[in-house]
Amino acid sequence: MSRFGETLVRNGYAVIPIVAGTKRPPGWMSHKNGDSWSAVKPDLARVRRWLNDKRLAGAGVGINLGRNLFAIDIDILDPELVGEALDWCMWNLPGNPPQRIGLAPKVLLLFRTEAPIKKIASAEFVDAQGRKAQIEGLGEGEQFVAYAIHPDTKKPYEWPGADPLEVKAADLPPITVAQVQALKTWFENRCKALGWAVKRRGSSGLTVEGDEDDWTRWIDTRRDLPLPSRRRIEAALAYIPPDARDIWLRVGGALKAWAATSGEEIEDLFIRWSRGDMRHDGARVPAAYKGESDCRHLLSTLRRDEVKQ
Questions:
Q1: pLDDT tens track for 13-28
Q2: What is the DSSP letter of 123?
Q3: Exposed, middle or buried: residue 27 (CB in 10 Å: 0-12, 13-18, 19+)?
Q4: Quick one: DSSP state of residue 61?
Q5: Ranges for the DNA primase/polymerase bifunctional N-terminal domain (predicted)?
């Protein structure tokens, strides 16, 4: 943080500390503690305070995404397909985005956007050697490690070309929703052509505010709206994919709040919905559900053209 933090802030990046030996911010930087890392903006004074915080000794540097900052995470270990993906990006996306490498050949590309974009995930495939292959677009509510020691390689993350220390956030090449969706489509078609099995379907969460694909706008925080019936909630869940972890947790919190307000038990519905995703097995779902006691989201509004009373 002492080497890179202030320069990154001056270049327009919202930096956050990363716990040494991990890829995550410290646990005390959470919504629960009123100091969420996802709310951090470019702030020199805050970076200087962190430098004197003994809890952050040896911390790495992460960068908050969102606020018109977006990253493409090519999470693939097959070097040939990584090369194909980078070629596709070179020919179909603008500019020359900074590239960050942690565990090669995986690579992350950094862009800016004209409007906020939320996370998208391609389908997750299993390659010929049984390894995960996926491309994710990371935006609102996400972060990535920029400068630290990678927990697996035990070596520093690398920026082979230009990096955020040299390129201001405002000067990054722009990317659009349509371009990221095109990359997702290309990747999924390419994996299918290779005969790779699908382990988990993709997420439709890449949206700008007001986009018709915005599943999370169904989870509303306003308390002046009428409490929906169980039948209405069940109908809504048929349209909400459980594969994106942020959506899965938000729905769990919404149902927890609904149960507390209505006096009805709804854990069984959450478990059945979660089982649409292989990650959320019967043992984990109840624990995650019960852990969302501080959430205030209510599943209060649904799209009328898809869910009818």
A1: 989 888 888 888 877 6
A2: P
A3: exposed
A4: E
A5: 5-176
